[in-house]
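Title: Comparing notes on inverse folding

I've been comparing how different people in this forum approach sequence design from structure. To keep things fair, I'm posting one structure and asking everyone to reply with a full sequence. Here's the target:
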């Protein structure tokens, strides 16, 4: 199958590679030429605009930083809607605000174009492995049509409901991850200040009720002081901003999310925005004047 792919960042590049491995003909576009060149070396073809991609492909995947980028790529000048034919399917795998997905969906529907919002969880390692968790909103029959494509990039693809449901599910995921990392950081600092080896604390509790995928992934990074990004603080700030915006729009209380967002904002202004979100521990280290290790 010929698939268009727009957005070749940390996540997009390995996703394209997995589509190529599955035997698809992938045609790519990104504003960063070096990213395009890497994908061409991997076997993809390149075009010079989102419009050009849409003129050639009936299935298009977008993987972009945030809501404004998605709107520009799909609805803007030389965007997808300028080139797409009726019946084209757009799978937006970006993590954006649900209300933005609904706005783009409406613009697509006016031209007979189908849109799914299908954000992912798992970060770069799972994008590389092709084991992303994919959360999908939109028309269920369209989801069924592209399910096999999604499963070349993920280990699960779950239909969550109408348009925007995928991104709402992703925001719920990001809230849980952020609050988990903050709680883990707080607990490890408690251990250090009480004179207990945090490595032993992690080993003792990871198999119990407190254990989680988040803990197993992030505790070793904290204890090794390895803050190389799998998922950057600045990206988590973006996601929690979208979660707070959605919470305010729907009347959902977001007390813990607000608290962790303030931690992340402080770390951003301390120059840690490009660190992995496990660096939330640095917020506690600054307050306690103590390193967790």
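Reply #1:
Here's my take.
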């Amino acid at each position: 199958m010929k698939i268009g792919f727009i957005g070749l960042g940390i996540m997009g590049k390995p996703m394209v590679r997995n589509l190529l491995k599955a035997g698809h003909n992938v045609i790519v576009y990104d504003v960063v030429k070096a990213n395009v060149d890497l994908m061409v070396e991997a076997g993809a073809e390149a075009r010079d605009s989102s419009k050009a991609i849409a003129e050639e492909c009936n299935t298009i995947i977008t993987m972009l930083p945030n809501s404004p980028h998605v709107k520009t790529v799909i609805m803007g000048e030389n965007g997808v809607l300028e080139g797409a034919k009726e019946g084209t399917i757009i799978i937006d795998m970006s993590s954006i605000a649900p209300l933005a997905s609904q706005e783009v969906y409406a613009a697509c529907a006016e031209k007979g174009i189908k849109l799914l919002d299908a954000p992912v969880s798992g970060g770069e390692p799972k994008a590389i492995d092709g084991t992303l968790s994919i959360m999908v909103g939109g028309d269920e029959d369209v989801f069924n049509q592209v399910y096999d494509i999604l499963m070349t990039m993920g280990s699960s693809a779950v239909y969550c409901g109408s348009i925007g449901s995928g991104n709402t599910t992703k925001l719920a995921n990001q809230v849980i991850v952020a609050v988990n990392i903050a709680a883990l950081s707080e607990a490890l600092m408690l251990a250090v200040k009480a004179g207990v080896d945090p490595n032993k604390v992690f080993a003792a509790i990871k198999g119990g009720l407190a254990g989680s995928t988040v803990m197993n992934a992030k505790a070793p990074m904290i204890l090794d002081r390895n803050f190389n990004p799998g998922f950057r603080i600045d990206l988590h700030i973006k996601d929690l901003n979208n979660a707070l915006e959605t919470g305010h729009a729907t009347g959902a209380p977001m007390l813990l999310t607000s608290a962790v967002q303030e931690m992340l904002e402080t770390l951003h202004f301390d120059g840690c925005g490009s660190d992995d979100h496990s660096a939330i521990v640095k917020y506690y280290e600054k307050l306690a004047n103590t390193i967790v290790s």
